[in-house]
Write a structure and sequence with these properties.
Nucleotidyltransferase, domain 5, 12 strands, five-stranded mixed beta sheet, 314 residues, alpha/beta, homodimer
């Protein structure tokens, strides 16, 4: 059985054949050109799929999309980074172009499924994957199956509230994990502390170009024992820990896999994160060694989209 | 097939045959005598089960217990209201006494299963049940099946954090739903406002015996348009709404069923609760008419325990 996977992002998309071991064959990456009309993007996706397939007969294609998906129809509810993708029937349109079965999945859910089957979640009963980047994405996999809810709002942990009385948040909710732990929140946390005149090497690391400041600068500073930088990660970790523990108390996963660009911070994030989760689970023990980095990097979503269509295609 | 259900609480326990329509036969209620040695309580439960069974051959018994249960073994991790119930093998001990198959379930999970199969959750794809009382209990049912996690921590929503930086909480976590919306939290919210000298009929309704103040007094005052009482319910509802929306963003349930003694407040709780959930789900719409009162009252747990053993007994 030959399966194609696509991981569609706001900047680029990646297409590949994914074999039964989760390995990529003929992978290619193209620019998304996110401002193009949606029909043009569909055509470009279909062209790339045909190019990757070459002479091979493809049985099905799974595509991960940056937005919530209606479970039954494969309609994308909205994708904030793609022009015109509101109630967009991505599955039907791709099927028209390509002729073989298509399954659509949210990109963070796809990454979770990829890590669960071929990555850091492989031998776990159940896992939460959090993808830390511009936003906070997530997916939950229980005994190999994606937790897929009633209407496409499942495992959108970026939008849970961990500060119920905050004035702002994300996706219409208040005091959310994404508004407190997304890329901009981490950078702003550092800027607020620097604005207060605390001594730090962060300004030096970003050449005093604060509009260019990234979480990577802050993690490099923390590795050099910069107190301000460490405090930024400690606070970020404390909030993330609340979100992780909330998920443990809701669906009781065995493992937590952390991926995405921000997770590259490594030890300066993971150490305070494990400590904070431990502090919140003193009654019901959670084994904090089960909080682990993702393994598949940027391929998790592509691999997971292929797992998804394989499970849904009989 | 004849199935027995038991709902074991800190004050009383109830035993009954539960028929295939969720109806009770020969139900009886006894005092738990929570301070007795655990073996004596087991013996009293077994005696009551034999009495209810009479001449009928019983195929299996399901028991709902006020504490987390290890999914595989039926061991109760701990039951704060029962003497000596720590790592307590309630299933094995009852089986020794009675000789037929026993399944053990957390009481809030049992109530959710009861409401899902025979009560307010009957025709829903998936539901969250919250039981508002001394504590905040919960259970999640997806397509008729209990969401049962890896280690017995699943659907313990009373212990999720909605105020991550609070100094106190419940079950070792901080700023939890239970610490902010349990019975005592509601009463204390009222007392704090009254202590501030605000005009209210609450003191009159409890005969100025503030140690006797109950959520019922506060709901009666709110029904008579007492501003302070209404504010107590509005704040309680705002916090509960954060917890409900968090669950929607985690497992994406179709319906939310609210039961337990505190839910008797009715309209003064449900109206602000629906408004607050609506305000938090402006992007991903949640149909707030799906937030409904429980239907089975005190029998939910008993009926659900019987559903549970029937599903686990083949």
């Amino acid at each position: 059985m030959s399966i194609l996977g696509i991981d569609l992002g706001g900047t680029t998309f990646k297409v590949s054949i994914v074999d039964e071991h989760g390995q990529l064959q003929n992978a290619l990456e193209r620019d998304t050109q996110q401002h193009d009309p949606p029909e043009e993007l569909i055509k470009r996706l279909a062209d790339a799929a045909r190019e990757v397939a070459g002479d091979q007969k493809i049985d099905a294609l799974g595509i991960g999309v940056p937005g919530p998906i209606r479970p039954d129809s494969g309609v994308c509810v909205f994708a904030p980074n793609l022009n015109g993708w509101t109630e967009f029937p991505v599955g039907d349109l791709l099927r028209e172009q390509l002729g073989f079965p298509i399954s659509v999945i949210n990109d963070a859910n796809a990454a979770a499924l990829g890590e669960a089957h071929f990555g850091a979640g492989r031998d776990a009963h159940s896992m939460l994957m959090m993808t830390l980047g511009t936003g906070v994405g997530s997916g939950i996999v229980q005994q190999g199956k994606l937790l897929n809810g009633f209407s496409g709002r499942g495992a959108e942990l970026g939008h849970i509230s961990i500060k119920y009385d905050a004035p702002t948040g994300s996706a219409g909710n208040f005091g959310t994990l994404e508004s407190e732990c997304g890329r901009d929140a981490i950078i702003n946390r550092a800027l607020r502390m620097l604005a207060d005149g605390h001594d730090s090497i962060i300004p030096e690391l970003c050449d005093h170009e604060f509009s260019e400041l990234t979480p990577e600068h802050i993690s490099r500073a923390a590795e050099q024992n910069d107190t301000i930088a460490q405090q930024v990660w400690d606070e970020t970790a404390a909030i993330l820990a609340a979100g992780i523990v909330n998920t443990v108390y809701t669906v009781d996963v065995e493992r937590v896999v952390i991926g995405g660009g921000v997770s590259a911070a490594g030890k300066v994030l993971f150490d305070p994160l494990r400590r904070a989760v431990l502090a919140r689970t003193s009654h019901y023990k959670f084994d904090v060694n089960q909080i682990v980095p993702a393994k598949l990097g940027n391929d998790a979503g592509l691999v997971g989209a292929a797992v998804w269509v394989k499970e849904n295609f009989r």
